Amino acid sequence: MAQDLDAFRAETREWLEASCPEEMRQPVDGEGDVYWGGRNAEFKNEAQKAWFEACREKGYTVPDWPKEYGGAGLSPAEAKVLRQEMARINARPPLSSFGIWMLGPALLHFGTEGQKQHFLNEIARGEIRWCQGYSEPGSGSDLVSMQTFGEDKGDHWIVNGQKIWTSYADEADWIFCLVRTDKNDKYRGITFMLFDMTNDGVSTKPIKLISGNSPFCETFMDDVKVPKSYGEGIPAYVGEINRGWDVAKYLLGHEREMISGAGNKERSGSLGPKLARNGIDNPVLRAALAEYDIDALAFGCMGEKFLDELKVGKGHPAQPNMMKYAGTELNKQRHELMMSAGGSRALEWESEETSGGTPARSWLRTKANSIEGGTSEVMLNVIAKRILELPGA
Amino acid sequence: MPLYLDEDQQMLADTASEFMAEQGGIEKQLRHWRDKGCKDGFGHGLWEQFAEMGFTGMMVDEDHGGLGMGHAEAGIVLEQIGRNLTPSPFLTSSVMAASALDAASDDLKGRWLPGLVEGKSVFAVAVDEGPKHNPQSIKTRAEKSGNGFKLTGAKTFVVQGASADMLVVAARTSGGDADDDGITLFAVPRDAANMTQDPVRLVDSSMASHITFDGVELDGDAVIGDVDGGRAVLNKMLSAGRAGAASEGVGVAGGAFDMTTEYLKQRKQFGKLIGEFQALQHRAAHVYSELEIARATAIKAAQMLDEDAEKADLIVSVAKAKVGKVARLAVQEGVQMHGGIGMTDEYDIGLFMKRDRALHEFLGDHYFHADRVARLSGY
Ligand SMILES: Cc1cc2nc3c(=O)[nH]c(=O)nc-3n(C[C@H](O)[C@H](O)[C@H](O)COP(=O)(O)OP(=O)(O)OC[C@H]3O[C@@H](n4cnc5c(N)ncnc54)[C@H](O)[C@@H]3O)c2cc1C
Ligand SMILES: Cc1cc2nc3c(=O)[nH]c(=O)nc-3n(C[C@H](O)[C@H](O)[C@H](O)COP(=O)(O)OP(=O)(O)OC[C@H]3O[C@@H](n4cnc5c(N)ncnc54)[C@H](O)[C@@H]3O)c2cc1C
C-alpha cells in the first residue's frame, strides 16, 4: 500500500513536472488568475489553457470523483498525495467552480445516475458554470424562511421570486436554486431545482461591493418555466420534491468546507517569512506576525486532520462549521496584517504597482468571508447546538 | 500518517483514559497528596501502576525492556494525564529523560532504564538557570577532573528534582555561556556528594527544586552522549518535552472545557439554564474550535518528531505556543462561566487554571515559542 503510494507520488511528480507550466506555479493573486470555465469562458493566457487541458485529460479537475463522471477515481490517500505534490510546487487549481465545490458533492450524494452522467461530466470538463440561488432579501441567515415560489403545473413549475447575493449570476450558465413548492411546511416544502439562466424570465442585476467589484447579483425570476425533467432519468430537481432542504444543508457543509480554506496552503501557511522580505524592523509587528503564524500553521494542521477524517467518515458531521468559522476569521486577520505590512502602498486603489489596488481590494473582499455561506455567528450557533449540545440553542 | 488515531492508538487512548480517570483522578491523586502536604507532590504507588500498564517505559526500546513506542503514543497518555491533572513524573522521566538516555552508552542505559521501566525510579531534568526558560545560555560548568568531571553551578525550578533518583543535567564543558557547542549532559545520581536541593511548592501543588552543585564529582561514564556535543541531545530532549507538554496541555484544556459545558447544562439563572444564553454559547463554541485546532497541532508535532521531519522543531514550537494560548482561554473561560463557585477551592475548575499556569511556563511559554517560530522562519 505504502509502496503503491510512493510509486504514485513519483509518477505524479513526473507528470506535474511535464504538465504544469511555470506561470501556473505562482500564488493566485486576484480574480483573473482563476479559471472558472463555462460557455463564455476565456483563458487569461496560453499557460492557463494548457494547464487546464492537461488536468482535464487526467481527471484532475476533480481528482477524487469516479472516472465515469469525469474524475480520476483517486483513493483518499492518492488524492492527498496529489494535493501535497501540487502544493509543493504551488500549482494553481486548474479549474474553480461552484459545480466542483458545491453542486458536485450534492449530486454525488443525492443525484440519479442520469444526473451524475450528465451534469458531473459537464462540471469536470468546465463546460457549464453554475451559480447558487439560496439567499433572498428577507432570508439570509434564516435561510429556511425563503419565499421564491414554484407553482406546480403538472410537467413543469412556474417560478416567481427574487434571490440576492448570487455570486457571478451574470456569468453563470445554470443555477441551483431553492424554491418553495409547499407553502404549508417550512422545512418540507422546498425543492432543489436546476435550470438554465437563459430561460425566459430570469434576469440579473449586479451589486457593487465595497471593493469596487461586482461579482454578485440580484437574480429575478419572473414566470420562469422549469420543466420537471431534462430527459430519461434526468429530473430537474435533486433529491425528492419538497425535500430540497436536506440537499441544501448537505451542500452547505461542502460550501463551508471550501470557504474554510482547509488544505489551502496559501491561506493556512505562515505570513512572516513572506513579509519579512520587505524588512520588518518593528518588533511589535514582528510579534504580531509570529502570533499570526502560530495560528495559521496550527490551522494548517487542523485542515490536514479535518480532510483526513472527512475522507474516512470520522469526525463530527457539523465539523465544517467549525472549520468555516476558524478559517475565515483567520483569513481576515491575515489580510489585516498584510495591509499593515504594506503600509501606505497597500492603500493605493488604482496604481500599477499594486495591480490595480489588489492588496486593498483583497482585504475588503475577505471581510465577506465571515458572512458568505453562513455568518460566523451562525457557525457558532451550530457548534453550540449540534456539537456541544447546549440547551435551547 | 493520517492525522487521527489508528486502531492501536485508539485502543491505547481508551485504556489510558479509563486508567487515568479511575486511578489518576483529581480526588484520589492531586487533592489527596496536596492536602497531605506530600513532599513529592505525587504518589509512588501510582507510578508503579503506570509501570504495570506499560506506560513508564513506553518510549524505551524493546532491547531495554520498553515498548519502543513514539511521541504520538506518549502524547495520548499525556492528554489523559492533563485531563485528570494526574501528578506524576511521566513527562520528565518517561519522555524527556528517556529521550536523553536514548543517546547514552549501554552501561548507562543498563544502570537506569530498568528502574524506570519497573516504576521504581523517577528522573528529573535540570536545564534552566533562571525563572524563564532559556536553554541557550548554560552557565553550570563541568571541569575535567581525573577520569571524570567536577560539576559547579546552579539549576532552578527542576520539576520533582528532590524526588528524583537521577537528574539529567545540562552543563558546559567548554566555550562561552551562550554557545551551541560545548554542552555535555550528565546523569547525576541523587546521592551525589556536594549537591544540595532546595525544594519549593508551586501554585499547582507540584514540587520543584533549586539545586546547587558545589564541585560534584562525576565519573566519566556519567556522560550521556558525547562530551561537548550535548546540544543535539539536549534539543531532542527539549523537543520531546515540549511536544509532550503540548499534549498534556490539550488534556488540561479539554478537561476544563468539558467540566464547563457540563456546568452550563446544569446551572440555572434568570429561570433558564445558563447554557441557553447566546453570550455564553458563542464563547463556548469559540473555545471548542480553538481546542480542536490545538489538538490537531499537538498530534502533528508528535508525528513529525516520530518521523524526524524537517520542520518538526517549528511545528513543536507552534504546538507549544498554540496549546498555551488555547489552554489559557479554556481555563479562564471555565472559571468565568462557573461564576462565584469557580473561585472556590472546593470546585475543581480552579485546579485546572493552576496547572495550566505551571505547564505553560514549563520549557518555554507562549512568548518564548512565538519568538522561536519567528526565528526558525527566518525573521
Ligand atoms: C461574498 C458573498 C458571497 C455570497 N454568495 C452567495 C451566493 O452565491 N448565493 C447565495 O444564495 N447567497 C450568497 N451570499 C449570501 C450569504 O449567504 C448571506 O449574506 C449570509 O447567509 C448572511 O445573510 P444576510 O446577509 O441576510 O445577513 P443577516 O442574516 O441579516 O445577518 C445580519 C447579522 O445578524 C447576525 N445574525 C443573524 N441571525 C443570527 C442569530 N440567530 N444569532 C446571532 N446572530 C445572528 C448575523 O450573524 C449578521 O452579523 C453571499 C454573501 C457574500 C457576502
Ligand atoms: C470573591 C467574591 C466575593 C464576593 N462577595 C460577595 C459578598 O460580599 N456578598 C454577596 O452577596 N455576594 C458576594 N459574591 C457573590 C457574587 O456577587 C456572585 O458570585 C455573582 O453575582 C455571580 O453569581 P453566581 O456566582 O451565582 O454565578 P451565576 O449567576 O451562576 O453565573 C454563572 C455564569 O453564567 C453567566 N450568566 C448568568 N446569567 C447570565 C445571563 N443572563 N446572560 C449571560 N450570562 C449569564 C455568568 O456571567 C457566569 O459566567 C462574591 C463573589 C466572589 C467571587
UniProtKB/TrEMBL annotation, chain A:
GO cellular component: plasma membrane
InterPro entries, alphabetized: Acyl-CoA_Oxase/DH_mid-dom, Acyl-CoA_Oxase/DH_mid-dom_sf, AcylCo_DH-like_C, AcylCo_DH/oxidase_C, AcylCoA_DH/ox_N, AcylCoA_DH/ox_N_sf, AcylCoA_DH/oxidase_NM_dom_sf, Mycobact_Acyl-CoA_DH
Domain Acyl-CoA dehydrogenase/oxidase N-terminal, residue spans: 39-127
Ranges where the Acyl-CoA dehydrogenase/oxidase C-terminal domain occurs: 242-388
Keywords of the record: FAD, Flavoprotein, Oxidoreductase
Gene3D superfamilies given in the database record: Acyl-CoA dehydrogenase/oxidase, N-terminal domain, Butyryl-CoA Dehydrogenase, subunit A, domain 2, Butyryl-CoA Dehydrogenase, subunit A, domain 3
Keyword Flavoprotein: yes
One Pfam family from the record: Acyl-CoA_dh_M
Statement: the UniProt record of this protein carries the keyword Iron-sulfur: no
An MF annotation (GO) of this entry: flavin adenine dinucleotide binding
Cofactor(s) annotated in UniProt: FAD
Residue ranges occupied by any Acyl-CoA oxidase/dehydrogenase middle domain in the UniProt entry: 131-224
Protein family: Belongs to the acyl-CoA dehydrogenase family.
PANTHER family: ACYL-COA DEHYDROGENASE, ACYL-COA DEHYDROGENASE FADE29
Protein's name in the database: Acyl-CoA dehydrogenase
Species annotation: Alteriqipengyuania halimionae
Source lineage: Bacteria, Pseudomonadati, Pseudomonadota, Alphaproteobacteria, Sphingomonadales
From TrEMBL, chain B:
Keyword Flavoprotein: yes
Superkingdom of origin: Bacteria
Residue ranges annotated for the Acyl-CoA dehydrogenase/oxidase N-terminal domain, each copy included: 7-120
UniProt xrefs under CDD domains: ACAD (cd00567)
SUPFAM superfamilies: Acyl-CoA dehydrogenase C-terminal domain-like, Acyl-CoA dehydrogenase NM domain-like
Domain Acyl-CoA oxidase/dehydrogenase middle, residue spans: 134-214
Entry annotated with the keyword Oxidoreductase: yes
Cofactor: FAD
Domain Acyl-CoA dehydrogenase/oxidase C-terminal as annotated: residue spans: 229-375
Keywords assigned: FAD, Flavoprotein, Oxidoreductase
Gene Ontology terms, MF aspect: acyl-CoA dehydrogenase activity; flavin adenine dinucleotide binding
Family in the record: Belongs to the acyl-CoA dehydrogenase family.
Official protein name in the record: Acyl-CoA dehydrogenase
The species this protein was found in: Alteriqipengyuania halimionae
